[in-house]
Amino acid sequence: MVDVQLARRGIRDEAVLAAMREVPRERFVSEGMEEFAYDDAPLPIDAGQTISQPYIVAAMIEAAEIEPGDRVLEVGAGSGYAAAVISRIAKDVFAIERHEVLGHAARKRLEGLGYCNVELRIGDGTLGLPDEAPFDAILVSAGGPEVPRALKEQLKVGGGLVVPVGDAGEQSLCKITRTGTGSYAEEDLGAVRFVPLIGAQGWAEDGRRSA
Ligand code: SAM
């Protein structure tokens, strides 16, 4: 998977490639899906959600430019897979999932596999984690109508936020870099397709933009 789907498609960061080699994706997919764990595709998990395609996980982590001493927030923990990969590079990882059933299963899985530097919380990740902010990097694994303001504000100066933005089915992966206390630079990393980011600074449950 790492040689064919990641390195050949342009993932260059050795730390990301090593982390993707180390984390056993078959332990994060749903029971019965293990034989597809290394396919170049997202796979269904509980609560109608997905574990993201390996290439997208690697591309987002590479774009976030995570360093070994970093504190990182992941919004949309799902199975816990991306958080586990990030944990092989960063110092501390905080991951939030809005579905309790997924969050509890991910926490148990991460603990069972010994990823002790990941803390999993249940809640609305569009609001970030004010009690743990600021973060060196924030990755959002679901797509919202715009970049959540709370997440921008919880970035350290120099930190990066990687987030899919746009309508369902036609999102752009954006990288926001905090360049100063109140200033940000924005880069478009290309088209992606993610499940919706549902929350106070994302979509409402009925698919409308939250107030
Ligand atoms: N990173 C995950 C993995 O490695 O398995 C895949 C994530 S899946 C594509 C996106 C996840 O974002 C879903 O589990 C969904 O429930 C979650 N999500 C959507 N909106 C959220 C929010 N406001 N806060 C936290 N999680 C959210």
TrEMBL record:
Its EC number is 2.1.1.77. GO terms for molecular function: protein-L-isoaspartate (D-aspartate) O-methyltransferase activity. One of its GO terms (cellular component) is cytoplasm. The gene is pcm. Belongs to the methyltransferase superfamily. L-isoaspartyl/D-aspartyl protein methyltransferase family. This is Protein-L-isoaspartate O-methyltransferase. Catalyzes the methyl esterification of L-isoaspartyl residues in peptides and proteins that result from spontaneous decomposition of normal L-aspartyl and L-asparaginyl residues. It plays a role in the repair and/or degradation of damaged proteins. It is found in: Cytoplasm. It comes from Novosphingobium lindaniclasticum LE124. Keywords: Cytoplasm, Methyltransferase, S-adenosyl-L-methionine, Transferase. It catalyses: [protein]-L-isoaspartate + S-adenosyl-L-methionine = [protein]-L-isoaspartate alpha-methyl ester + S-adenosyl-L-homocysteine. Pfam families: PCMT (PF01135). The active site is at S52. It comes from the Bacteria. GO terms for biological process: methylation; protein repair. It is an enzyme of class 2 (transferase).
